[in-house]
Automatic annotation (TrEMBL), chain A:
Pfam families associated with the record: Transket_pyr, Transketolase_C
Keyword annotations of the record: Oxidoreductase
Source organism: Sphingomonas populi
Domain Transketolase-like pyrimidine-binding stretches: 4-189
Xref: SUPFAM superfamilies: Thiamin diphosphate-binding fold (THDP-binding), TK C-terminal domain-like
Protein's UniProt name: Alpha-ketoacid dehydrogenase subunit beta
From TrEMBL, chain B:
SUPFAM superfamilies: Thiamin diphosphate-binding fold (THDP-binding)
Catalyzed reactions: N(6)-[(R)-lipoyl]-L-lysyl-[protein] + pyruvate + H(+) = N(6)-[(R)-S(8)-acetyldihydrolipoyl]-L-lysyl-[protein] + CO2
Source organism of this protein record: Sphingomonas populi
UniProt name for this protein: Thiamine pyrophosphate-dependent dehydrogenase E1 component subunit alpha
Domain Dehydrogenase E1 component: start-end pairs: 13-317
Recorded GO MF terms: pyruvate dehydrogenase (acetyl-transferring) activity
Cofactors required: thiamine diphosphate
Length: 337, 329
């Protein structure tokens, strides 16, 4: 085990996979950084420091610094994958999905099915996402709710450095396209990470982050930490919560959610997205249709409001879910008679 | 460069195969037996064949919604394609793709595409993969070819792809088939550079060629030069604009009210790449009429066999809907 930051777990995993497999290559805006400048290649090394050193180690053919052209980045990843490579593409902010939606939705998500199962498309599209930096409406959004709805894409939301490592390695070795959603606010998070060069976390298996008998809190990405903080606070009052970290929203680990709710009878879903047609509504519908008889109280959903992400510190804090909002929702379900 | 008898015969056979495949579909679609949207390639055969006759299986192509010609020229199985268009479980894509999504990765055919302009960046990615692979023993790179029309030349994806290919020096050839119509709109209206697509590619910083796309020999000769250039490591991409003609509508069922009086008859009489090829090789005494007639007959037989097989082929069932995805809910 080694103590690593989330961003370094990602960078190291890409580095190790590029060493292990000559088919793995990286592309995106400023993934080298400094190309065509006085500072020269690697002057930046990726604005999130998730690709530092890759260019020096693997060269320009495999570490492809691209112009600001999101459609071309995802399209090129699609072509690289169809031609036998394992591209790891970076879209600098997940908000830019609007610019490359066709390549994501109509191309890479559909090849395997549309071509009758006779092709694979092992592309990883990394998308730093989420609020917390006061980056306002076009640089703060989560997008898991769109991509989870797209058949053919696998959607990953790591919540810890260890998961970032194990899930990214799984993504790179996976034969299907994977949308890898790194929460920007987690990049500086430290944690123990396995140094096993083959450490992979299989998709579709949720992690039980806290265990308790009174309520089930389901979350993903940055919301897992909020759920854990709420559970720790509630534990002081003798309230025990299961905190389920989904890890992947597609495939979805239905079994872990349903098993937990059958014991606790109470469900709180925490989602950074706005409330309609979201992960929160999806999990609520799942439990309502498959564990209805176990429910002892209405399902609580803690989500962002149905507004764009606001800029000012006070407004963004009010916009986001928080440990306090999660704890209040748990108490609400427990007060139901 | 002079082509030998075998190469001439093969080129004619390939063009004829595409022509008869499409002419037969034009008839069959009118019976209602074939579902969905179909876009026919008749009139443009010299481009697909003049390009693909130079390629090996290592080379990749990315096609368009008007993709049957590119698929056949790159070696996709005739009956497998016909079955796919019929929606059979035995089709090249098990009936999941249809006319607009035929692909055969083993042949280097990375897919037709229902989205205009979507193939260009995919082609650049394939070119970047071939650049990673590096040159073969002969010192030459594999190439990726993206076919686009005058419609796709107006899509942002095409611009992004051209710039990305130039800055990464990807071995990609942007083949623009200017058939003068983007769907139902003339290129004199829709292409702002006075019908000139190649100048756009040139402005992105790549070398460009132009040739008459209804003259097989012009296409074939031009592509020899283009390929020699792009296969040379370090040169990067190139673009070619072929002036060509679309004999049918945008899609089958298109009433084509935008055509001028007698336009299609005139195009078929004066701009038919297959008639022009035939006149040229027979007048030069390179191939006798009898040989070409024999190819015509053989081709009709091949198409008849493919249609019969498609009619009789097993249909997919509801259970097949859930195949070829990693998970269903």
């Amino acid at each position: 085990m080694a103590k690593l930051m989330y961003r370094d777990a990602i960078r190291n995993t890409i580095f190790q996979e590029m060493q292990r497999d000559a088919r793995v290559c990286v592309l995106g805006e400023d993934v080298v950084g400094g190309m065509g400048t006085a500072g020269g290649p690697e002057a930046i090394g990726g604005i999130w420091s998730t690709s530092t050193g890759l260019y020096d180690a693997f060269g320009a053919d495999r570490v492809i610094d691209t112009p600001i052209s999101e459609s071309a980045i995802v399209g090129a990843a699609a072509g690289l994958a169809l031609a036998g490579k394992r591209p790891v593409a970076e879209i600098m902010f997940a908000d830019f999905i609007g610019v490359c939606m066709d390549q994501l939705w109509n191309q890479i998500a559909k090849f395997r099915y549309m071509f009758g199962g006779k092709s694979i498309c092992p592309a990883v599209i990394r998308m730093p996402c989420g609020a917390g930096y006061n980056a306002a409406a076009q640089h703060s959004q989560v997008i898991h709710q769109f991509v989870t709805n797209m058949p053919g894409l696998k959607v990953v939301m790591p919540s810890t450095p260890e998961d970032a490592c194990g899930l990214l390695r799984q993504a790179i070795r996976d034969d299907d396209p994977v949308i890898f959603l790194e929460h920007k606010f987690l990049y500086g998070m430290s944690g123990e990470v396995s140094d096993d060069p083959d450490f992979c976390i299989p998709f579709g298996h949720a992690r039980l982050a806290r265990a308790g008998l009174d309520a089930t809190i389901v979350a993903a990405g940055m919301m897992v930490g909020y759920a854990e903080a709420a559970a720790d606070e509630l534990a002081k009052d003798g309230i025990g919560c299961d905190v389920i970290d989904l890890r992947t929203t597609s495939p979805l680990d239905e079994e872990t959610i349903l098993d937990s709710v059958e014991v606790t009878g109470r469900l709180i879903v925490v989602d950074e997205a706005p409330p309609r047609c979201s992960l929160a509504t999806d999990i609520a519908a799942l439990v309502a249709s498959k564990a209805f008889a176990s429910l002892k109280a209405p399902i609580e959903m803690v989500t962002a409001p149905h507004t764009p992400v606001p800029f000012a510190r006070e407004l963004e804090s009010a916009y986001l879910p928080s440990p306090a909002k999660v704890a209040a929702a748990v108490r609400q379900t427990l007060s139901y008679r | 460069m002079q082509m030998n008898r075998e190469a001439l015969t093969r080129a004619y056979r390939q063009m004829k195969l595409i022509r008869e495949f499409e002419e037969r579909l034009h008839e069959e679609i009118q019976t209602g037996e074939i579902a969905g949207f179909t876009h026919l390639y008749c009139g443009q055969e010299a481009v697909a064949v003049g390009v693909c006759e130079h390629l090996s299986e290592r080379d990749k192509i990315v096609s368009t919604h008007r993709g049957h010609g590119h698929c056949l020229a790159k070696g996709c199985d005739v009956t497998g394609m016909m079955k796919e268009i019929w929606g059979s479980q035995e089709g090249l894509c098990n009936g999941k793709g249809g006319s607009m999504h035929i692909a055969d990765l083993e042949k280097g055919m990375l897919g037709a595409n229902g989205i205009v302009g979507a193939g260009s960046p995919i082609g650049v990615g394939a070119g970047l993969a071939l650049k990673i692979d590096g040159p073969d023993g002969d010192g030459k790179l594999g190439v990726a070819i993206t076919f686009s029309g005058d419609g796709a030349c107006n899509q942002g994806t095409t611009f992004e792809a051209m710039n990305l290919a130039v800055v990464t020096k990807a071995p990609v050839i942007f083949v623009f088939e200017n058939n003068h119509y983007s769907e139902h709109t003339g290129n004199s209206y829709a292409v702002g550079t006075a019908n000139d697509i190649a100048s756009r590619a040139e402005a992105f910083g790549m070398k460009v060629w132009r040739a008459d796309g209804t003259d097989f020999f012009a296409v074939h000769d031009c592509m020899r030069e283009v390929l020699d250039y792009v296969r040379t490591p370090g040169n990067g991409p190139a673009a070619v604009e072929f002036d060509t003609e679309r004999f049918f509508g945008h899609f089958e069922g298109d009433p084509q009210r935008y055509r001028g009086p007698g336009e299609i008859d005139r195009l078929r009489a004066t701009r038919d790449c297959i008639s022009k090829f035939r006149d040229s090789v027979t007048q030069a005494g390179l191939l006798p009429d009898a040989d070409l007639d024999a190819i015509d007959t053989e081709t009709l037989d091949v198409i008849e066999t493919a249609v019969k097989a498609s009619r009789a082929a097993p249909r997919p069932t509801a259970a097949n809907v859930l195949e070829n995805v990693y998970i269903t809910y």
